[in-house]
TrEMBL record:
Entries under InterPro entries matching the protein: Glucitol_operon_activator (IPR009693)
Descriptive protein name: Transcriptional regulator GutM
């Protein structure tokens, strides 16, 4: 009887985690739709194993000026997007230069992935076409 209860508890926890993950994905999709109203949207993701993960949503106009930036950072499914006010009004070229100056490198000399740089590069590709 003890093993049956433990299996039920494990499946119950997996189900609850699935519900929370569903809610977070729903929030992510809603935020992307909201950001598309401001302009073109670039998305940058850095998955974290031991460190918190990051997702950056960057909305720019056709001239490459940042209209709005939102960041989700955290370990758990309770993380939500928060606006990054400091980046509003900054040009993508200027922002890219700042990011490239502040890149962090691992012991092998390889640059660690930066979600903001990913978002900028994705937007540059879309603006170029």
């Amino acid at each position: 009887m003890g093993m049956e209860k433990m299996v039920l508890v494990v499946f119950g926890l997996i189900f609850v985690q699935g519900l929370f993950t569903f809610a977070q994905v729903k929030n992510y999709n809603k935020k992307i739709r909201e950001m598309k109203q401001y302009g073109m949207v670039g998305i940058g993701i850095r998955k974290g194993r031991i460190t918190p993960g990051n997702i950056i949503l960057l909305a720019v106009d056709k001239k490459g000026i940042v209209i709005r930036c939102e960041r989700m950072q955290g370990f758990s499914v309770f993380a939500r997007f928060k606006e990054v006010h400091e980046l509003a009004g900054v040009g993508m070229e200027e922002l890219k230069e700042k990011v490239l100056c502040n890149l962090k490198y691992n012991k092998k000399g390889i640059a660690k992935p930066d979600p903001l740089l990913q978002a900028i590069e994705g937007l540059e590709a879309r603006l170029a076409s």
